[in-house]
Amino acid sequence: MRVRLTDDSGEVVDDGLALWFPAPNSFTGEDVVELHLHGGTAAITAATRVLAALPGHRLAEPGEFTRRAFENAKLDLTEAEGLADLVDAETDAQRRQARRQMAGELGDLYEQWRAALLSALAHFEAEIDFAEEDIPPDLHARAVGEVRAISTAVAAHLDDKRRGEILRGGVSVAIVGPPNAGKSSLLNRLAGRDAAIVSATAGTTRDVIEVHLDLGGFPVILADTAGLRVSGDDIEQEGVRRAKRRADEADLKLAVFDGATWPNLDPTTLALCDDDTIRVVNKIDLGVASDAGFIGVSALSGAGLDALEAALSSAVAQRFQPSAAPALTRARHRAALEECQASFARFLAASEKKGAPELAAEDLRLAARALGRITGRVDVEEILGVIFAEFCIGK
Ligand code: GDP
Predict the structure, then answer these.
(1) CA dihedral of 305, 311, 313, 319, whole degrees rounded to 10
(2) Count of H helices and E strands in the chain?
């Protein structure tokens, strides 16, 4: 609907569109009016002033619409997190992961596990609450089998090398190598802009410099580290320490060797090389014939950079390609799932010894609560529902 916004004096402050989303089908589940006005600073300030004068009006708090949507059960917590990730997504792979989470894939998985768990718990509670002759004899074994199956699925989900979390935050790639190998020059080349200071004097890159790249849809945080060499200079030594730490923490490493010293390769850099390292020889413009296992490049002329970028893209894609199953994307999910696994382990150990079923049931309840906390849906009343839906007790 076309609207004109007027202030107390009757002056038309702005005109635009009003969209009416009646409850319960709006994003938040409440009655919502969306005003489409002109976006200038003064226009928005004036419109806000007019609206603020109306009774019951105030500015929304950060995330308040999403919070209301959650409180009105329009979204679960993982979907709300997916929405936040979508807003922050810088690359295609991040956007896709966020979309999937926002669409409920992750939350559905956790809810499925929780429902299966509540059913196992119901079987267990029945065993505690009712005389043995009233319940099927294999109930105990069934409950244990169900819990074991969920626990195996949770373990597989947790064993993901933090793929979802890394994709969400960006894949960190550390450029390591001796001073003057051309690390800064290479970073600048890859970044396509002058992000790092390039200097002919050894040991000038004393801190870690980062650039964010989009490599084939994957977010990559490329860090140039200080040259690895033993130094008497305190600041530079700190730089070297940081470089080593950074290399240890990185998801991938680009080891850059100085073509000027070929075939003598820096032993400190060689020692850092592992399966997650791409080995690069720089300065091939000096006439270096690099070996197999090394990608020859020239940061100066740009030769070999396409091959390097392709190798880096494929290494990243290989490791962080989203799988068919949804990935957990936050430490919060991981912590809750680990708590869940600990409860399962206690439950399974106790049921092997045929220990007190009350304690074992409590472990299942804790596990269900941990799962419920991830999606934000914790409700013990549901257990009763499952019992009555599945059994004809007293028959
Ligand atoms: P870093 O200490 O490893 O970061 O090395 P820099 O990027 O600061 O480069 C050190 C020196 O090597 C500078 O004088 C660069 O101009 C030079 N350099 C870098 N890349 C190349 C290259 O591909 N070929 C040649 N000939 N010189 C290079």
Answers:
(1) -160
(2) 14, 9
By most ligand atoms within 8 Å of CB, the mutation choice from 175, 185, 283 for ligand 1 is 185
| pTM, to two decimals | 0.77
> Mind listing the pLDDT tens digit for each residue in 98-141?
999 999 999 999 999 999 999 988 887 777 666 666 666 677 78
Short-list 266, 309, 257, 311, CA closest to 288: 257
Structure confidence at residue 65 (pLDDT): 82
Q: 316, 218 in Cβ contact below 8 A?
A: yes
What tens digit of pLDDT does each residue of 310-357 get?
999 999 998 888 778 889 998 888 999 999 999 999 998 887 776 677
Domain boundaries, the chain: 2-59, 92-160+326-388, 167-320
As a whole number of angstroms, the distance between CA 31 and CA 353 comes to: 56
Nearest to 173 by CA among 280, 75, 87: 280
Question: Ligand 1 atom closest to Cα of 185?
Answer: 7
CA of 276 to the centre of ligand 1 (A): 24
The ligand 1 atom at the shortest distance from the C-alpha of residue 188 is: 7
- Residues 28-85 have pLDDT tens digits of 899 999 999 988 888 888 888 888 888 888 887 777 788 788 888 888 888 988 888 8
Tell me how far the alpha carbon of residue 275 lies from the centroid of ligand 1, in angstroms. Answer: 26
92-160+326-388 under CATH 3.30.420.280, yes or no:
no
Any idea which architecture 167-320 has in CATH?
Answer: 3-Layer(aba) Sandwich (3.40)
User: From atom 25 of ligand 1, which residue's Cα is the shortest distance away?
Assistant: 283
Q: Ligand 1 pocket check: which of 184, 198, 229 to mutate, most ligand atoms within 8 Å of Cβ?
A: 198
Q: Which residues line ligand 1 (CB under 6 A)?
A: 177, 179-185, 198-200, 205, 227, 282-283, 285-286, 298-300
